[in-house]
Amino acid sequence: MSARGSLGIKRKRPSSDSKELTPDERKHYDLIISKGDMGIWKGDIKRELNIANAKIIDNCVKSLLAKQLIKEVANVQAKAKKRLMAIEFEPSKELTGGVWYNQEGSIDDIMIETLKKVFKRVIETQKFATADGLRHKIGELEVVNFELNAEHVKEIVDCLVLENEIVRVKSSGTGEFASIPLNTECYKLKSQIEKSGTFTMIPCGVCPRISQCSPDGIISPITCEYYNKWLDF
């Protein structure tokens, strides 16, 4: 989700005529709409409008909800305190928790697990993948109903790395990495590179001289003893 302005992104105002409101409903509606994409908790309405009778607030809120001028929005930071928001606003990331949360304000485990499975499938099919490559592929597959950005991809691959499902490797610029710029971070399934013996991952991924390595340099994957041994393994 992208960051919004101080009042957020507005949709087209609903067809319900907001002019057909009682004076009390009008005060409530004007206050709620002024809060933009952050909305307002019912308890704060009581304080800001200085209304002692909670029943007045309840009746006004019920009426505005029925007229589809406002909506209730879950707050991931305080799930017991749903916020009221004008219908034309989309809730801010601070309220929703971002793309990994569902409309109820809970972490969307199903979506996250689905993405992790698709990431692994893409890496397995392509032998390896870059973060940008994963982002574009997921966009093509339309796995989710929003556009993955670099931060989203990083969060998923970081999770897979922590779970020991994939490993980070550096492009050598040759062989299967010929189309990938030297030193670009790539991802491979751990099962793809696990081998019995001394080499458990591409040497380039842990080489302390990788920043000085180039196909035509003094340090080169073409002349690298360790890389050639790994290729022959």
Our count of helices gives 9
Number of strands: 6
Q: Please write the string of helix (H) and strand (E) elements.
A: HEHHEEHHEHHEEHH
Strand order of the largest sheet: 1-3-2
Question: Distance between the terminal alpha carbons, to the nearest Å?
Answer: 45 Å
Largest sheet geometry: 3 strands, antiparallel
Shape: rod-shaped
Estimate the mean pLDDT confidence: 82
- Structural category: mainly alpha
**What is the helix fraction of residues, given as a range?**
25-40%
Estimate what percentage of residues fall within beta strands.
5-15%
Quaternary organisation = single chain
**Which regions have little confidence, pLDDT < 50, spanning 5+ residues?**
1-9, 196-200
Radius of gyration: 26 Å
